[in-house]
TrEMBL record:
Family affiliation: Belongs to the HerA family.
Domain Helicase HerA central residue range list: 26-245
Xref: InterPro entries: HerA-like, HerA_central, P-loop_NTPase
Stored Pfam families: DUF87
Name the UniProt record assigns to this protein: Helicase HerA central domain-containing protein
Single annotated GO MF: 5'-3' DNA helicase activity
SUPFAM superfamilies membership: P-loop containing nucleoside triphosphate hydrolases
Organism this protein belongs to: Halogeometricum limi
Residue ranges of the TM segments: none
Reaction equation(s) it catalyzes: ATP + H2O = ADP + phosphate + H(+); Couples ATP hydrolysis with the unwinding of duplex DNA by translocating in the 3'-5' direction
Amino acid sequence: MKDEIELFIGKELDTDEEEYVDGSHSRAVFICGKRGSGKSYSMGDIIEEVHDHTQGVVPLIVDPMGIYWTMVSENEEQQNSLWDWGLQSRAYRVNLLVPGNPKERYGEEVLSEMKRRGLEVSAIKINPSDISPDGWCDLFDLNINKPMGITLYRAIRNLSRQQGNEFNLDDIIDTVEGDAQSNERTKEALLNRLEMSRDWGLFSDTYTPIWDRLDETSLNVLDLSVVDPGKYGLRNLVVSVLCRDLFKRRIKARKREELELQVDVPRVWLFIDEAHNFVPSGESSLSKDILIRWVKEGRQPGVSLTVATQQPSALDHDMVSQCDVILCHKITTREDIQELNRLSQDYMSSELKTYIQKLDRVGQAVYVDDEDESISIVQMRPRRSRHGGGEN
Ligand SMILES: Nc1ncnc2c1ncn2[C@@H]1O[C@H](COP(=O)(O)OP(=O)(O)OP(=O)(O)O)[C@@H](O)[C@H]1O
Ligand SMILES: [Mg+2]
């Protein structure tokens, strides 16, 4: 039997008993609550616990607000509270993954100050060959049955057949230009889009495995706040390419583990804040399929997931219903309470919404664990490292 790994999240409100999440195997945690109710803070609690207590599990944080880099510093503001809880503040090693060129994204002064504070900053670029022909068409919102979509699909498919991983944006442009089956107007419109995508500054010229950018000893924070959330779904693109690669590698690694061969691909615990942007309900997104697969099939490759959102009803129900741990902070909108109430289980003595009504302070949450069939109201523990999401 595997050793029990207990992730300390807080104390039960009535009894003061310590509450833990079992982290000894793959988990899927769902955190929700209205604005300012403590979701990002609680996510930080779990990140700290995963880093401190699980060996060979690497935290990767998808950070659309750009707030988790502050974990590189101790929580100095809540020293008293940490003291009351018998906890000590601490700083973490943070590997900040920046899509594109960090100097351009932050400016020179901010970047050097971040480095002075101990952050490691790694640029991540996307290999054009890591995006499928369908993915390319989705990116430009092209129908694969219409001329532009057909041309782009054909170009990517041919390049990957002929050159495998070894092609870049210039090669795609050249291939489209030389496509004898498409008419000039179609090609010109497509080339405009491809040229424009150069300005995103996201694509790499030579193939670099995205996996190499992760640091196993650090908290890996993917700062998406520097990427325009606009119409091309570029944030989703980055998440999708990264997660596809990680998932694929873990599936291969799992085979090796079963054969007792050496494995150099650690398990990943993915944390996604503002998750409704990546797995929206009722619409597709570039990252949705892989993230749903991650949560549904994650046990086998040994990957975990924690998602946080202020709008449970805006997060795909398939994702929500797969989560085996729920941390629900204060929530008031009827739609969202209804969505949560759908998750009520037989072992609960009353509906989830009656528990939610009892919450009255920031940092309190209804904690449901499907594995233990338990439900309680928890005061989440103070953070060891600095929380970056507070208001000014
Ligand atoms: N367990 C806790 N203990 C002490 N303070 C907390 C706790 N949880 C949250 N807070 C405080 O509440 C504030 C809001 O928390 P947080 O940023 O996590 O909210 P949120 O739910 O993520 O909000 P948003 O929807 O705006 O992202 C933080 O500044 C933090 O200081
Ligand atoms: Mg938040």
